[in-house]
Design a protein that fits this description.
about 110 residues, six-stranded mixed beta sheet, four-stranded antiparallel beta sheet
Length: about 110
């Protein structure tokens, strides 16, 4: 079973940027698609973006242009670059390769 560790969250002012990382254990990372989700307080978890093993990407429409998903298979790591952050982006962010990691908290202050 793949173990996932998300990192890179924190407190940032509106308009700022963060880059989240998702590092996986094991040797099968490179063949798996990676998804990012987020869950805001009191809301359901929502899908944000995904990247295939070959690097094709897809995003929820509301994130296009602000968020960028990428991966480095040599490092078993996927990334979510988040720019022009808004207070409504405040949430716990999770990566998923068939199961979720523990999440990383992102808080955007106004």
């Amino acid at each position: 079973q793949v173990q996932l560790v998300e990192s890179g969250g924190g407190l940032v002012q509106a308009g700022g940027s963060l880059r989240l990382s998702c590092t996986a254990s094991g040797s099968i990372f490179s063949i798996l698609p990676v998804h990012w989700y987020r869950q805001a307080p009191g809301k359901q978890r929502e899908w944000i973006a995904m990247i295939t093993s070959s690097g094709l990407t897809n995003y929820v429409d509301s994130m296009k242009g602000r968020f960028t998903i990428s991966r480095d298979n040599a490092k078993n790591t996927a990334y979510l670059q988040m720019n022009r952050l808004k207070p409504e982006d405040t949430a716990v962010y999770y990566c998923n390769l068939g199961q979720y990691g523990q999440g990383t908290q992102v808080t955007v202050s106004s």
